Amino acid sequence: MRPDTLQSFTKVEQELQQERAAALGRIGKTLEELIAKSCALQIRIETASTDDRVGLVAEYRETWARARTYRWYLEVQREAIGLRRHERLDEMYRLPAAPDNRGPRAGDRGPGTGDRGRAGNPGTGARVASGTLITLRTPNREP
Prior knowledge:
With 143 residues, this protein is mainly α. The chain is built from three helices and four strands. Strands 1-4 form a two-stranded antiparallel ribbon.
């Protein structure tokens, strides 16, 4: 390969890596914002009136679904730059569980218990600062 061709190739490759890293940062920031919004909505749901709760739960579900999608985007982007191990992502970007209006089920134990595995199986319940259990369900479990 000619030196000028090799230099051009190296420059393009470097620009691609920089863009991948920038995309990784943008995805991570968006995911952090969505997780924070989900947590804030959980607290608002706890104290909301029955009328307000329905709208807040709908907003929480939408926000949670977006966070779950961005968690997946983050994993894909990491793989694009050669990072194959994602165990730390579950610690750094812990998704709250999805809400469910029916109440806790028998055997539900709360976040951080049972099989966490990948995002999408983050646990089944969450306690907010007051200690109140917000009604949640594991996302992939049938009703």
